[in-house]
Amino acid sequence: MTTQVTKGIKISVSTNFEGTFFKNYKMHYAFGYTVTIENLSKDSVQLTSRHWEIYDSLNDLEIMDGEGVVGKKPVLNPGQSHTYNSGCLLTSPIGAMRGHYNMISFTDGKKFRVYIPSFKFSAPFALN
């Protein structure tokens, strides 16, 4: 598990290999990841959007931006957490992701970034 704390918001990520399949005459590698967002601060906050940088060892960097996470914009009061599952398709058995969440504090109305630590994807058969 990979963990990082930014401004009192703790992000923890774990990954797993889901399998392979063919799509458009190409082999694809499916990975899942679970993210837990914990509010360790004294302020209530809301996640408004996300930014991902996806690295595939055989392709260029892919940037993905979007609203919320898996269709939600969770509000986290002090001491609360939110966990969600998502996935990523790569064209190689090794890759990584990193990024940030854009959040807003309900205490002062200020927007801020919470960084998501870099986490790796690797199919079990790709490593010695």
From TrEMBL:
**Segments forming a coiled coil:** none
Q: Which Gene3D superfamilies match?
A: ApaG domain (2.60.40.1470)
**Alphabetized Pfam families for the sequence:** DUF525 (PF04379)
Q: Where is the ApaG domain?
A: 3-128
Question: Cross-referenced SUPFAM superfamilies, in alphabetical order?
Answer: ApaG-like (SSF110069)
Among PANTHER family, the record links this protein to: F-BOX ONLY PROTEIN 3, POLYMERASE DELTA-INTERACTING PROTEIN 2
Q: What is this protein called?
A: CO2+/MG2+ efflux protein ApaG
Q: Which organism is it from?
A: Cellulophaga geojensis KL-A
State the encoding gene.
Answer: apaG
